[in-house]
Amino acid sequence: MDLGFLAIPFFTALGVFSLAVFNNVEAVNIESISVPGAVSSKTGFTADVVVTRLADRMQQIERQAQTRADAKEVMAQDEGGPAAVLGEFFELTPLLRAVQTTFGLIPYTFSGEVVANGENLEMVLRGRDNQHHESTIHQEVEGRDVPKLIDKVAYEAVRMIDPYMLAAYQFKKDYLIRDFTTTETVIRRALAAPETRDKKWLYNLWGIVLYQDSDRDGAIEKFQDALEEDPNFASAMFNWGVVMAREGKHEDAIDKFQSVVVGWKAGDPVETLAAAYTEWGFTLALLGHPDRAYDKFRQASKVDPELSDVYTSWAEVLSAEGHPEEAQKKTARALELAPVEKVYTENLMGRVQSLPAVAANR
Fold first, then answer.
1. 177, 183, 178, 124: which is closest to 149 by C-alpha?
2. 108 domain residue, yes or no
């Protein structure tokens, strides 16, 4: 009797199990957060609600940061991501969690509790990474303001997981009020930590912050610090070129943009390569070479057809050269790609490239 058909569900389960495990390398798991019954009954925030709201808030910070960093999936222990769903389907959840933990496939795991501290509430959240490093977050709010408490804890949890992501998120908030004090504090604190990853990205963002404060020499210094961390770091080289161009050092700027193009390698952000071609073209136009500028814009549009800033610069040069109808088409394309202008945290493009009048006159 052929019993081979019995192996099909087993191998199907094994295949999905492996996929589920190894697709969650970037997962952040919130195991549990206990909440006193008195707090739950008064506020409506049960343990499950707190876990879900905390995970949602952390994901929201990541989405608003919009960094080049890969999104980290935040999972609740009971509700989980794809791994938990598939694990429960095949009744493998306990084994799945054990394998994930054993092989260090979950970079960060959190657990904690909400406690009443007199009239106030405090949350203690303990985090550990897959290298067995542990940290504890303590946050407190006046009264029974659970949403505010969750926001404060989520902010610190993201700082623990990815300081650069938090810095990018804070930069976008500070950009609205033109005061980058808090962003600089986040960056300084991250760089002071002995095991901070993404130092080149932190220095690069610091340079963008200083540029926004009209400290161009300071910005160049930070871009150079980023390049000391990685001599082939395309964003820092590009940003250095933008500052040179804004100072009227066009030949120096072109050297930087050319370095980005020559040094670009597979895996680097195509957005930065396209930006380098775009700024190279715009600088050529300023030097009186519009035809060569158009060639660079075409190269930029081939590299990244979705980058709206290519068409914005292209339209500006066309308009200056007396081609209003063509310029209008490029502007329409730019608006089609990006109806709302983006605030970049990696490259000096778009809104962050032009200083406000107040800063420019300092």
1. 124
2. yes
Closest by CA to 16, choosing from 101, 91, 108, 70, is 91
The whole-number pLDDT of residue 181 equals 97
Amino acid letter, 166: L
Domain housing 276: 214-360
Q: Is the dihedral of CA 32, 33, 35, 40 positive or negative?
A: negative
Q: Are residues 337 and 254 in the same domain?
A: yes
The contacts of residue 75 (CB under 8 Å, 6+ apart) are 24, 27, 28, 29, 30, 55, 81, 83, 84
- Best CA proximity match to 338, nearest among 66, 35, 108: 66
| pLDDT at residue 340 in the model | 87
The two tokens of residue 172 are 């976008």
pLDDT in tens, 280-295: 999 999 999 999 999 9
The segments of the chain whose pLDDT lies below 50 read: 1, 3, 5-8, 10-25, 69-72, 78-106, 357-362
Both 243 and 321 in one domain: the answer is yes
In a domain, 79, yes or no: yes
Does residue 151 sit in the same domain as residue 223?
A: no
Beta bridge partners of 138: 124
- Given this model, what pLDDT does residue 74 score? 52
Q: What digits encode the pLDDT tens for the residues 178-212?
A: 999 999 999 999 999 887 788 999 999 999 999 99
In this structure, is residue 153 part of a structural domain?
yes
C-alpha dihedral sign at 308, 304, 350, 262:
negative
The candidate with the shortest Cα–Cα distance to 310, out of 348, 350, 283, is 350
One domain for residues 224 and 156: no
* Rounded (5°) CA angle 84-147-145: 140
CATH number of the domain bearing residue 297: 1.25.40.10
